[in-house]
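Thread: quick sanity check before group meeting

JM: Hey all, I'm pulling together slides for Thursday and realized we never actually wrote out the predicted structure for the chain we discussed last week. Dropping the sequence here so it's in one place. If anyone has concerns about the input, flag it before I start.
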Amino acid sequence: MKKIFSILLFFVCFQNMQAQKGIDSLIQAEKNFAAYSVAYSTKEAFLKFLDSAGIIFNNGKPANGIMTWKKREKGPGVLNWHPQFAEISGSGDFGYTTGPWTLQNSSKDTVDARGQYTTVWQINAKGEWKFLVDLGVGNTPPNLVTEVKKIDIGKRSSSGATQHDSPVIAENNFLVAVSKDKSKNYFESEWIFASNKLSRSEKIT
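JM (edit): ok, ran it. Output follows.
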């Protein structure tokens, strides 16, 4: 019995170590993305870290990120950002970070614009973190990040509804519920965890 318990304890510790390693590598990928933007340009950074299927919003419409950025001119501005919150899936190959961004004409100039970004990442076939979606809001107050908070997704209930096994099904069910009663279902425990973050123009909550 003790031997079985020791084996189970080993696997639990191993899984926790792997999850920690995964989220640390996700955070580092985001930091590398930002550093590349400052060192080379926003265009080169996006082309380097975008997934081949990555999406950006061009004039409010979703478009292939790489194809869109290849057509854009390299701008003079310096776009920088810092991860403030990070979360990773149980599989360790999918996650996101969110935090403040700033835009300057040059690294020596004052900040011209600021906001809050959210980047969704996945590990590709080569084992590299590449981002699928990059979103952002502007006009947020100054947000000085001193450390990255790692959000714990918690344990999934063994009796969890199978309708949430697919994120597409879960999203569709959520949209249907919100369309019926937004004020009730938007913050319903079935759809949102206590650790979830809501990004608004004024702040992140």
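AS: nice. The helical segments are 2-39, 42-49, 65-71, 167-180, 182-185. The first strand starts at residue 50 and ends at 58.
JM: adding both to the slides.
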